[in-house]
Amino acid sequence: MTLIKYDQGLPNVANRSFSNFLDRFFNESFVNANKEMESFNPQVDVAEGKKEFELSVAVPGMKKSDFNIDMSDGKITISGERKFENEKDGKNYHSVETKYGAFSRTFYLPDNILEDKVEASYQDGILKVIIPKDEKKELKKTIQIK
Q: Residues 53, 107, 44, 141: is their CA dihedral positive or negative?
């Protein structure tokens, strides 16, 4: 059984026919699908270990070549584009729930990292960026009270 959102905006009974309902359902589904495809923003998990920071970006269906990772001015930016490939194989899509489009995520980095040792890998739809800490630099300082 499918739940359907009730719309109070219907002005009269004529607009409540089953045919009109189906027309609205499919038309609105494709309009919303196009909006969703334009606003792809992958989920990112940020973790900190004793020796490194780890960013895990959930981007299934992409290739390694689809990503750009840039570091500058104390920030790391992960960007890319997930394209909808509508192959001409006789399929008619009635609903597209997967999100597509260009994305860019930027994260501020602490001062105690080793910028030249940052590594990235992509496996099973997860892009992992490992940012090692510089153990010589301490961010924690104790202030003596006078």
A: positive
